[in-house]
Specification:
heterodimer, A: about 325 residues, alpha/beta, Elongation Factor Tu (Ef-tu), domain 3, Rossmann fold, Ubiquitin-like (UB roll), 3 domains, 6-stranded antiparallel β-sheet, 5-stranded parallel β-sheet, 7 helices, about 30% strand, B: about 350 residues, alpha+beta, 7-stranded antiparallel β-sheet, 13 helices
Chain lengths: ~325, ~350
C-alpha cells in the first residue's frame, strides 16, 4: 500500500529564464515522482538559517513526466525570504523537501475551449496545461503578459511551438492585452483561466460579469503568497501560550515553528484549509477565501496570509 | 495467509454464497461502540489488522473474487448503463486503470502482472484468464472502454468524482452491487445532491466538513471509512433498478429464518486522489455476513445487538430496515447477557 509523505528531491539544474526568474529542475533522491494534473503545485520546504520557509510553486513540467519536476521562482522585491532563499542559496546539488502535488487550479475538461491569461511568472501553471491541452486536442489560446525587463520567461519557445495560439504582450514595449476584446471573441462554453496579479484577475472577472459569463467559467490563481507586515503577538487561548510573529513571518509559519499543525494546501489564502477561530484582537484580512460577512465578523482568520491589525491577536487553538 | 478465490457461488436465485471460517474472521466488523453514533469516521487507508486482514492491501481480493466477477457480468449484460463514463472523465478512467493495475500486480503477484515499457503495457489476470497488450491512454487499444475493462476485474463498486468549483461530481463509475442507490440516477450530481436523501447529517454540518476534507485529499494519501446496512438474502445487486426483485424480500424475515436470511452488509469505502486528472476515485468494497455466522463471534453479537437497539428511527427508515429491525434486535438479544 503506497502512501506518499514529504518527498526528498535534489536540484539537478538551475536556469535563469528571465531577468528576475530562475527555473529549478527537481529529481527524486530515489524512485520516481508521481504524475500530476495540469495546474498542480508543490509546497517547497526551505530550511533557512533563521526560519523555515514553505512556499507553494506551480509544477511546469509535462504532467506525464515522472522523472523530474520543474518549478520557476520569481525574485520578490518584498520577499519574506523564500524567493531570496531559492535565488541565492539553492544550487545544483541542493536537497529540498517537497509536498506531494495538489491542485487548486485544474483545467475544466468539459470546456469547449480554454483561454489562458498569464501575467509574468503566472505563466508557470499553464506550462503544465499546454502538453495536456495538446494531447486532448481541445481548442485553446494563451495570452501572455509580461515586462521583458523582469519576466517573460519561455516566450520564444512558446511562440515557436504554439504559433498563432500564443499571443504575447510586452508592457516594456508598450504592448497591452485588450482583455475584453479577447473575451468577446470566444465561443459559448469557453472557460477562462487567469494566473497573474490581482489587477489582471479583476479585469477578467469584471469583463466576464459585464458580458454575462458565469463565474463558474472563470478560474484563477493568485500567485502572491504571504507578504510581510507589522510584527505582533499571538495568544493561543486553548494552550495558554504566546508566540511572537515576526514582520517577515506569516502567522501560519509562526504556528508551525511552535509545532502546531494546521492543515494547509495553498499557503496563499485560497484553499480555506487553514482557517482558525479568533477569540480576540483585530484581523487584517488578506485572503480571498472568507466571505465579506465572515471577514467583518472578525471571528475567523486565514493564518497563511492574514495578520493582526494591531499588536495582539488571540486564537482559539 | 490470505483467503484464496474459491469456486463461483451465486448472489441471486439459489443464493449459494457462503463465508468460510477464515472469511468470517476477517470480516470488517463496523461497530466500535455499544451505542450507535453518526460520524464521518474517516481514517487514513493504511494497513491494519495484520496479514490477511481486509485492510492490509489497497484493494482486497478475497475468496469471493470469482463469484463477484461472475455476478458483475450478469448485471452488466442485462443493464450496460450500470457502467458509465462522461466524456470529460477519460483521463480519470485511465488514472483508475493505472492505480488498480499497479496496486493489484504489486499486492497479488500470483494473480496479476503488469509489464510497462513506456506507454506499451501488458496486463495479465490469471484468475480470469485475461492477457492483453495495450497503449496506455489510448482507449481504442483495449477491448472495452478503460473503466469498463478494469471494473470487471476487481471486487467492489467504483465511482470517479470530478473535482471542480470546490465540489465533487459523480461523473463516471461502475456500480453493480449498490446498497440501494443508482449510478444512472446520481450521474452528474454534486456531493450534496447525491447525499440529499441521507437523514440527520445535513443539519449537523457533516457534509460541509466532509466535502472540505475530501477536496483537500492529496495524491498518495487515500482515506477510508465504513458504512453498513442489512440486506435480506446474500444479494449483491440491491439497486433501485432491481427493486422489484428484492424489495419484497424484506417482508420474508421471520424469527425462525432471521439468522440465515439477514446479512450484515459492510462497505469499506476508500477515497483516493487520481494524480493525472485530479479526480477522486471512490471505491465501495461490499462484504456480506449472515447473522448466524456473525454471532459465532460473541463480542460482535453483543455489540451488534446494542448498536441496532440504539439506532435512531430516521436511520432505521433510511437504511430500509423498518420491516425487520425488531426481529433482528430480538434475535441478537439472546447473545447479550445484559438484555
Amino acid at each position: 500500500m503506497s502512501v506518499i509523505d514529504q518527498m526528498s528531491v535534489v536540484v539537478t539544474a538551475v536556469k535563469q529564464v528571465a531577468p528576475m526568474i530562475k527555473e529549478f529542475t527537481l529529481e527524486p533522491l530515489e524512485g520516481q515522482l508521481t504524475p500530476f494534473s495540469p495546474g498542480a503545485h508543490v509546497v517547497v520546504t526551505m530550511a533557512g538559517t533563521e526560519s523555515t520557509y514553505r512556499n507553494a510553486y506551480s509544477l511546469m513540467s509535462d504532467p506525464q513526466d515522472n522523472s523530474q519536476y520543474r518549478i520557476a521562482v520569481r525574485l520578490q522585491e518584498t520577499s519574506r525570504g523564500g524567493s531570496v532563499y531559492m535565488h541565492q542559496q539553492v544550487e545544483v546539488g541542493t536537497q529540498l523537501k517537497i509536498s506531494p502535488p495538489s491542485n487548486l487550479f485544474a483545467p475544466q475538461w468539459m470546456a469547449k475551449k480554454h483561454v489562458l491569461f498569464a501575467g509574468g511568472v503566472g505563466i508557470t501553471p499553464f506550462l503544465s496545461y499546454l502538453p495536456a491541452l495538446q494531447r486532448q486536442q481541445v481548442p485553446f489560446e494563451l495570452h501572455y503578459m509580461y515586462r521583458s525587463q523582469q519576466t517573460g520567461a519561455y516566450r520564444i519557445e512558446l511562440t515557436e511551438s504554439l504559433a498563432d495560439r500564443c499571443h504575447c504582450y510586452d508592457a516594456d514595449q508598450g504592448n497591452r492585452c485588450d482583455v475584453s476584446a479577447v473575451m468577446s471573441a470566444q465561443p459559448l462554453g469557453t472557460h477562462f483561466y487567469i494566473c497573474g496579479p490581482e489587477s489582471l484577475i479583476e479585469a477578467v472577472q469584471t469583463t466576464a460579469d459585464e458580458m454575462g459569463i458565469p463565474p463558474s467559467a472563470i478560474h484563477w490563481e493568485a500567485f502572491a503568497g504571504a507578504k510581510p507586515g507589522q510584527p505582533f503577538v499571538v495568544e493561543l487561548s486553548g494552550r495558554g501560550v504566546e508566540l511572537d510573529v515576526a514582520a517577515d513571518s506569516s502567522l501560519l509559519e509562526a504556528l508551525e515553528a511552535a509545532d502546531i499543525k494546521i492543515p494547509n494546501l495553498c499557503r496563499a489564502g485560497v484553499c480555506g484549509q487553514c482557517v482558525c477561530d479568533v477569540a480576540g484582537g483585530e484581523v487584517e484580512h488578506r485572503d480571498s477565501y472568507l466571505s465579506d460577512t465572515e471577514k467583518q465578523s472578525g471571528r475567523v482568520i486565514m493564518p497563511c496570509v492574514s495578520r493582526a491589525a494591531g499588536e495582539r491577536l488571540v486564537l482559539d487553538i | 495467509m490470505r483467503v484464496a478465490p474459491k469456486e463461483i457461488q451465486s448472489f441471486r436465485d439459489d443464493f449459494t454464497y457462503s463465508n468460510s471460517t477464515k472469511a468470517i474472521e476477517r470480516f470488517p466488523f463496523p461497530f466500535v461502540d455499544d451505542e450507535y453514533r453518526y460520524s464521518v469516521n474517516m481514517e487514513p487507508h493504511l494497513p491494519k489488522g495484520g496479514e490477511g486482514s481486509a485492510y492490509d492491501k489497497f484493494l482486497d481480493i478475497d475468496e469471493h473474487y470469482l463469484s463477484e466477477m461472475a455476478e458483475r457480468e450478469l448485471v452488466l449484460k442485462e443493464m450496460p448503463h450500470r457502467c458509465l463514463a462522461m466524456e470529460h472523465m477519460d483521463l480519470a478512467c485511465w488514472d483508475m486503470v493505472e492505480r488498480l493495475m499497479v496496486s493489484l500486480s504489486e499486492d497479488y503477484p500470483d494473480y496479476f502482472s503488469l509489464t510497462r515499457e513506456g506507454d506499451l503495457w501488458r496486463w495479465e489476470n490469471k484468475l480470469l484468464n485475461i492477457n492483453d497488450q495495450f497503449t496506455f491512454g489510448d482507449s481504442s487499444s483495449l477491448p472495452l472502454p478503460p473503466l469498463d475493462y478494469i471494473g470487471r476485474q476487481v471486487q467492489g463498486d467504483f465511482a470517479l468524482l470530478d473535482q471542480r468549483d470546490g465540489d465533487l461530481f459523480l461523473d463516471a463509475g461502475m456500480v453493480t452491487c449498490p446498497a440501494d442507490w443508482s449510478l444512472a440516477f446520481d450521474a452528474g450530481m454534486s456531493f450534496r445532491e447525491w447525499h440529499g436523501p441521507v437523514p440527520m447529517a445535513h443539519s449537523e454540518g457533516i457534509f460541509d466538513r466532509a466535502l472540505k476534507y475530501l477536496i483537500a485529499i492529496p495524491v498518495g494519501k487515500p482515506v477510508r471509512r465504513l458504512n453498513w446496512t442489512l440486506t435480506v438474502n446474500a444479494r449483491m445487486d440491491t439497486s433501485p433498478e432491481k427493486y422489484h426483485e428484492w424489495g419484497h424480500e424484506r417482508t420474508s424475515v421471520t424469527p425462525d429464518n432471521v439468522g440465515e436470511k439477514v446479512y450484515l452488509r459492510v462497505e469499506v469505502q476508500v477515497l483516493d486522489r487520481m494524480p493525472r486528472s485530479n479526480a477522486m476515485m471512490f471505491s465501495i468494497r461490499t462484504y456480506l455476513l449472515s447473522l448466524e455466522d456473525l454471532v459465532t463471534n460473541k463480542t460482535w453479537a453483543v455489540r451488534m445487538h446494542r448498536a441496532l437497539k440504539t439506532l435512531p428511527e430516521p436511520l432505521i427508515n433510511y437504511k430500509g430496515l423498518t420491516r425487520f429491525h425488531g426481529t433482528v434486535v430480538d434475535y441478537l438479544s439472546q447473545f447479550d447477557p445484559v438484555s
